[in-house]
């Protein structure tokens, strides 16, 4: 009985620590990103480069991914409003069967974006990789990140910690009910941000410098 009681107490302590970590990490990132994300094309400042963060075009089991579609629509709108001059597509190219950057580029070209205005980062396996490589590989000092607001906030914080000045243009989100799994995962991803900062995690790959012009 005593052992069981101590075990339960330990579980309560661990659960409390996890909950506190989730709340604090979320609050820090939200606070930092305040006034750094935009919903309006009129209000958002111009930047040379807009970076769209990759995601799968289709959900498991088939069907289109609304996160993907909304990010495509947002970056196209940003470009056509002349708020950016070039587009950097950063995503996962983990196998010959899965290639986010090329898929996104093809859809951007279909939407009227000139191919020569699009640059691809095939090693954007994580948001951390995307932001570090934007600075170290593509030589950016400023960038406009395009994703959903919750993702933009985390990307902006990571950019700041890697000496990259970033703002975000928010793609349309989806309902909490439909996106509950993604939203819950985001809370833990924000805790991982601080773990990566503490242990000084770098991108999976570096690479030769690529100038966007």
Automatic annotation (TrEMBL):
InterPro entries: Cell_Envelope_Assoc, DUF218. Residues 52-171 form the DUF218 domain. It comes from the Bacteria. Pfam families: DUF218. PANTHER family: DUF218 DOMAIN-CONTAINING PROTEIN, INNER MEMBRANE PROTEIN, PROBABLE PERMEASE. This is YdcF family protein. It comes from Maribacter litopenaei. The lineage of its organism: Bacteria, Pseudomonadati, Bacteroidota, Flavobacteriia, Flavobacteriales.
